[in-house]
Amino acid sequence: MDRSASSDNETTPICFSINSPPFKYNHTIASAYFSAIFSGLGLSSNLFAFIVLIKAYQRAQSRSRCSFLIFLSGLVVTDFMGLLVTGSIVVSFHATRFNWRELDPHCHFCNFMGMSMVFYGLCPLLLGASMAVERFMGINQPFSRSTNVSKSRALLTVAMVWVFAGCISLLPLGGLGSYHMQVPGSWCFINISSKPLDLIFCLVFSLVGLLSLAVSFLLNTVSVVTLLRVCCGQEAMQRRRNHEAEMMGQLIGIMIIASICWCPLLVFIAQTVLTRSHVQVKYLLLWLRFATCNQILDPWVYILFRRAVLRRIAPSREWSRSSIVSLYPGFTTSLRRLTRPSLGGEPVHGGEAPCSEDTPIPPAS
């Protein structure tokens, strides 16, 4: 008996060593309907958003807006590809009920899906943090940044985020952590375990995601405060740049959605491995659905929270920073007193060079 048991352990691929198909699990949240609806809605939303972004990029008149649109395009493309890769595998499993052990005897397919889950999970969080850094520098350091902003720099940053997330997803193939089949047998993900190597990789995944959200929250808060300083200053009319407020509003929406969707899963993984608890499949699938919602809702933040759309919803209002702040005159007065000296005493430029131009903005005299 001992020899046969050890023989079975030696012949069982590592991705099936903990959970091995077939499974008997009929929870509604793991049904084919959820997967098909989520995937179809997410793919169509991201495709529509990408078309809108292309048109907006062609009309963009400032380098900062072009840079921001490149980041948004990278986010939309990442979300689209993530849903396409992982969704097609999950929906195919529910439709055909293929046998993972026969289809993937050496765990190559399972490892690919696990890498995809990690890569396409971290990329939106890292891109959100990158956009927060870009907006923070653009709003708080407009002069030192003016000579560096360009389309090539934005594209390079997006590419670096993809490479960084890809390197993290490859760590289990190098021995740090492992990818395993997950209940109900339709997907593969990191092994949420308290074993040393698995624990380290789980913490790397969770902490990178949580740190990205923390950076986004901190820098976006500072950027919003800076914009309010400009709005409440005596030279608000001369300094007003409505597209800055529009971009910050969209970035805040992306950050809030990412926090709501991803924090439960990231905290759940870290808490499970640190407390050495048994993985509760019901909650794992629930928080995974929350994370999937991020890829569906991200494109709608840009689609809906644009001044062109807001003007159609409420055509009688002027959707600008000064008009929004003017709704709260008491708050405006108090904030002006608290923030009378603006950042560095430097004015914010009223306009920027178009995307095709790379000439720096001249410093204020």
TrEMBL record:
One of its GO terms (molecular function) is thromboxane receptor activity. Keywords: Cell membrane, Disulfide bond, G-protein coupled receptor, Glycoprotein, Membrane, Phosphoprotein, Receptor, Transducer, Transmembrane, Transmembrane helix. It comes from the Eukaryota. Residues 342-365 are annotated as: Disordered. Gene3D superfamilies: Rhodopsin 7-helix transmembrane proteins (1.20.1070.10). It is a multi-pass membrane protein. One of its GO terms (cellular component) is plasma membrane. PROSITE patterns: G_PROTEIN_RECEP_F1_1, G_PROTEIN_RECEP_F1_2. The chain crosses the membrane at residues 32-54, 66-92, 112-133, 154-177, 197-230, 251-274, 286-305. InterPro entries: GPCR_Rhodpsn, GPCR_Rhodpsn_7TM, Prostanoid_rcpt, Thbox_rcpt. This is Thromboxane A2 receptor.
